[in-house]
Amino acid sequence: MFSRYGLRFRMAVSYMVISAMAVLVVETVVAVFVAPQATSSTASITRADVSTARAQAEVIAGADGRALTLVAGTAVAHRPSMSDQALLTAVVKLWSGQVGQADHLFNGLDEAVATPAGQVVLSSRPAVYPVGATLPPAVGATAASGTSRVTGASFGWATSPVTVTWPATGRHVIGLVYARFTVPGDSYSKQVVRYSDIGGFLVAAVLVLVLLIPLGVVFGLLSTRRLITRIRRLAAGAAAMAGGNLQARVPVSGGDEVGVLEAGFNQMVEQLDAAGRAERDAAGAEARLVERTRIARELHDSISQDLFSLSLVSGNLRRTLPDGTRFQEQADSMVRTIDHTMWEMRAMLLELRPVALEKAGLVSALRELCRSYEVRLGIRFSADLHDVRLEPAAEHTVLRVVQEALSNAVRHGEAQTIELTLLSIEDHVDLVVCDDGRGFDPDQVGDRHGLGLSLMRERVAELGGDVAVRSRTGQGTTVRVRIPGGRS
To answer: Is the dihedral of CA 231, 229, 216, 34 positive or negative?
Structure first.
């Protein structure tokens, strides 16, 4: 769906969606776990306040019940013939002032004195418990306590009996004290309930999500800018390479996965460039080999045959002319010139003749080349050839250098004996071609001789080697080639 907008837009949207999902998860956790805990904490506070109110009621009721018991005991000592009802009425009259004071001392306290049946005879708040009213059914003539809830309010209550000991009947209950504490409103509890309001929470969650959308988009665009730039640079390099530009490179801008991809792209382009160069060189070498073969064949089939026919005619002409005449001398000169030309032609054909280096190996190819010169030109060879370890390109160079040196020795130096040496010395390979020809002055090399030496030096320099030529007029020539290599 979003593929047409590009990678940068899609990554920005994904960042925004992930952030929104994270916020939703957090809000869900808060709604499910935190709000109920807030409500339960309010209930816990309320229960704690009810328990406190009950304990306070127990203290007040117990203290007042014991006080009324003491008062009742004093009254019995002075008037032993009083009834329980009369005794309770007398005690209440004496205690009515204390009950009013207790109501002012304790906020939320309601207190009453009642008969054992629960009928009120004295109350601190007559509007709540008027005289003659009956206390709640749970109230009895024995000490008790509890909690209750009426019209949304919570209470803690307690009762304590008022007892007396008669001389005739013994100890028995004549009434009871009832105390009730109302649980006060708690501001902290109300505040917790207000902050845990679900509606306000949902509004805040929606506002966070609305603010998150633009922030997520901006963050996604900024965080992906550098990554997208690097990817676009890689795409441009790949397009240039596909268009044939094997010099295209991209800067490696980091050590992360994209940086590894950039380095791999550069390595791939370099390998393709090297493979292309090697293929072009191989194709060029193959084309040169084919051309040399074609030229050698043309020279052999046309010019060499014509020269041979001309040598036969000139020989017959010389034999038919009278001895000692000027024409016979010219015929002799023509025969010598034709013979020399044919000799040079054979040397040129040997230079152009391809040698099966790949099948025979370097040493075998050099021996075959030496035998060809011996058979066709009558050159004497002294060959000291050892197996050496060279790359195929280096072996090809050695073979071409030997061909060039032999051709120069035969065609220009008119050598009759040639020494050829090939061996490994430490970390390099030595090739020496020494002839007994006319020699020359290296400082005065003409174009005809200098081109062959220049080609030799260029071939060897490509392999990191060097060529040394030592020669003097009338003392032959020595060509020494040194190429990096190893022992076989």
So the answer is: positive
Q: Rounded CA gap, 266 and 271, in Å? A: 9
Q: Which amino acid is at 21?
A: M
The domain total for the chain is: 3
Q: What is the mean pLDDT of residues 100-105?
A: 51
Distance CA 37, CA 45 (A): 12
Q: Would the pLDDT of 159 be above 60?
A: yes
280 falls in which pLDDT band (50, 70, 90)? Answer: confident
Whole-model pTM over 0.85 = no
In three-state secondary structure terms, 463 is coil
Q: What is the pLDDT of residue 433?
A: 94
- CB atoms closer than 10 angstroms to residue 189: 16
Report d(CA 400, CA 459) in Å as an integer: 9
Q: Whole-angstrom Cα distance, residue 300 to residue 167?
A: 168
23 and 141 Cβ atoms separated by less than 8 Å: no
Q: DSSP label at 214? A: H
Distance of CA 355 to the CA centre of its chain: 55
Q: Give the rounded percent of residues in the chain with a pLDDT score beyond 90.
A: 7
> Do both 281 and 349 map to the same domain?
yes
Strand blocks (E) in 248-398: 380-385, 388-389
Cβ atoms of residues 157 and 145 within 8 Å = yes
Task: Assess whether 47 and 167 both reside in one domain.
Answer: yes
Q: Cα dihedral sign for 212, 215, 218, 219?
A: negative
- Asked if 248 and 266 touch (Cβ cutoff 8 Å), the reply is no
Per the listing, tokens 């051309």 go with 291
Assess if residue 209 is contained within a domain: no
The answer on 250 and 181 residing in a single domain is: no
Other C-beta atoms closer than 10 Å to the C-beta of 266 total 16
289 and 427 housed in the same domain: no
- Mean of per-residue pLDDT scores for the chain: 77
The whole-angstrom separation of Cα 261 and Cα 186 is 67
Domain of 476 in residue numbering reads as 360-488
Is residue 175 domain-resident?
A: yes
Average pLDDT value for residue range 272-279: 83
Segment 402-417, tens digit of pLDDT: 888 888 888 788 889 9
pLDDT digits (tens, 9 = 90+) for 72-83: 777 777 666 777
Mean pLDDT value across residues 347-371: 73
Contacts of 130 (CB under 8 A, 6+ apart): 120, 123
- Residue 233 falls inside a structural domain: no
User: Would you tell me how many other CB atoms lie within 10 Å of the CB of residue 314?
Assistant: 20
